[in-house]
């Protein structure tokens, strides 16, 4: 029995398309599940080797369900990320003309990405109804419940529909980022273009509190690529911060920054170091002067000599 | 014709309850609208004097629709905020017993706040269906579409339902924060317990970039109460930051921090200074030494004397 | 009676040479006095319009007597600075050969600048005796007390001596910096290449205390060119800091930094803004993005619009 | 032959008194030498095991000769420091009355500490002549060259003089700090009240440059007790910084700060970790939260678990 990957289903969604870009999926059983929590629970419960879920999109921002699941509960780790360009097709039953469309459907997350297009191209009184997923919306069109669905073009065939319009996306560069999540284990070796994800809690609320935490990265030349606040659930205004930083926990500058945070934060949760999607190794900026592994090692050697009085 | 306030409807939601805590609503026409964008558009279009919408809740975090509407489009300003404790009642048609419940409904935002309660108190196979609002869920129960609705207890009477269980809330201290938003005008005078909201964009991505922006607050002793990143829509990883800081734009330390941000950020959007809900003036920490208005004025006088050579 | 400038005498020292590079000395009476305190007291007492004294040299560092006099007592201000290349000549009575020299003299400050030269060029057993000034050393050679004096070549004629060797200077780029000091008055207008001098006292001793003070400059893009600690006289380890920063008190970034210091330091003493010697206007780096006067004014305008609700 | 300690002589100076407070001097030969450079050269050349020299006094600040000798040349290390209260006696030949005094002498460093006393207690026309040391001044009085000498009371007997006035000191709390310097070797073990001395050079001159270096200490909770700038000798305005920090190189927070400096500075010179004079272990503040050795070790363990995926 092959190991299985649970992913946010149903089949025929962007998530599945993104997942299939990972080479190892060829040898895994891919299991659609109904929700992000269900996917992660499958990992925690041992039914799945890993879960593949969306975590950020360029229009809506962080996918809070995924973030909140990673922030709380039994620890999980991110092993891979995938970036997928998101463009929608308007899927209809064969024979439907654009002027026939009175009702459309899709997952609510699709709405901000097609809202302007709808205003410009569909009748003003067209009715939008939410579907559980874009694929499910397509199914409902197939069943005749709605006239049209916004979904990935790849979903048309499965549901006997045709793409009336393609390449629909209100925002340029619309992308969704997905992560492959598993139980904690040794992170993959650095590739030279890596990211490290971590969640930090602040000890107390005082002027400059968050700034001091960010300083742990800044002073060591570690660039942040994402900072998202998430409520801790203990009351309004109590937030933790999910941070994505450039570099790998095996990089000395990243390791020292993480240890610095561990010392000053009441809690730090390491979410993994993994290859950064969409960034080639040759495009990675060299570390700032004084923060390369070689410089860390040289400084460590120097310190040892000072401690021994040999200099 | 009285001035009107548009609010996220329908009637009978937590939003309406929160809105009615504002004394001036006695002399305003309160108009429920279907969505946050509709409420803000009513203000922008001049049909409403102000809009009242949720902006943050202690379980889900920032209400992204509201944030994104404030971040983009024609500028608006926040004039008031209201904090409301959120607890749900399970509303049913008279005569329904808890064991009769096969289907429940509510707005999706309610789900994380009642999920654990459901697990512990309802049958495992009970079906959850999302409603457009909690009040709408109650209406659907009245119509017989579902067996029970999670909603504010106050909604029962309007829909001929009875509260089978009350005080349901998975998280302690569950609260939602609402804001009253209008067209830009002179902010209300400081009360001594104020907040200032601002959105900042970062010029470039380098180690310490965000830290440098937060430094503008920290060096002047201005405490941050909320920092949320929101995608700019220009591509994955491009974020602006919505910040709530303690103090009023009329406070010299806040004013200087805002000017500092204005100089180093490509864009800063001022969202208003307004009384801070839930914090009494006597509970506000005095400003850090060197950051009171008196000290700013004294330093300014001293500088003038230096520039004149009189010292 | 022309206004007079007191300078550290006697005549024939480097100080006089440096002073005479100031054009206005043509119309002033130049009065040599015996010490830096005497020169500054002449200003404080009203006997001299200004005093001209050394404040820093590239070999010995800050001239502590001058710094301490400016730090304490009745306030004074720096109006001009002069940089002078320092090279020594070995002055002897006519007829003296280098092998005849058994004793040499000069002001103690000269010693570190000629020490290596002496080791290489004079007999090992030559005796050094300190003189009250380099010019006084020359006088003592004239009188026959010593065989040779290190002094400026310009001093030879006055004392009937001849320069046996010239261009003596152990360190390359040996320079001394002099300042023209007067009673407080309005600083001269900015030239575009200016410096501002200030003395700051620290409120308390905690990790990062000095760093926080320097941050007042750094966050506003003001570069420091000199930082010297001087004892406050209240006990070992109690220091104040004499700071030279790039820019003029009329520059908004400098003014705001000074006010910031004034607010957080128990005491700040402004020592003046004046043209920077040795730096041409065209070689001055433009202010860091966000710190020019124009950007300060624009931010101030923006703030006023925010405060008025006009944006 | 016992190991010898060279000290700034001659006998009978404050330096000798301070040196004799060290218990180990009972078993060492104490050798007075004519200058600080001579004392340090004796160590570098192997003729002395250690040198004992003044490094700071509360009136004059850093003893620049000592600092400059430690900053340049073959590396040396500080092993001990001694704080000595400095009060002067006015020494005269037996029979001299205060009204007989026409000339006084002492080392130039004594002058700022007795200047006010002289003004109040001696005739206005009394003549001050500098001596090579305070002890040498006493000798010159013995020889009849001058009428009185300012020196330590302990010097009277040796030169057949009597203390006419004692406890002379213009400033309260006048102290001089001395250091025992030797060739580099393993620093003594931490006592709990230690200091670490280091010299740092700055890579480039930009706004915030020095602040960034001080940040290496601040972010790790290491308090600075002294910062002195010394010219590098390469031109006016080029300075290095001699820094005394609280703590021992064996403290993890100090070690990490030193490594941080080593990475970002073109040069760092470690001058030793040694017991702090005048501070009892029980008066040392506990390290700031997050900076104790225990917290460093715990963070290091946590990092290792993250790197192994065991958490």
Automatic annotation (TrEMBL), chains A, B, C, D:
Pathway: Amino-acid biosynthesis; L-phenylalanine biosynthesis; phenylpyruvate from prephenate: step 1/1. CDD domains: ACT_CM-PDT, PBP2_Aa-PDT_like. SUPFAM superfamilies: ACT-like, Periplasmic binding protein-like II. Residues 4-183 form the Prephenate dehydratase domain. It is an enzyme of class 4 (lyase). Keywords: Amino-acid biosynthesis, Aromatic amino acid biosynthesis, Lyase, Phenylalanine biosynthesis. It catalyses: prephenate + H(+) = 3-phenylpyruvate + CO2 + H2O. GO terms for molecular function: prephenate dehydratase activity. Its EC number is 4.2.1.51. Residues 198-275 form the ACT domain. It comes from the Bacteria. This is Prephenate dehydratase. It comes from Streptomyces endophyticus.
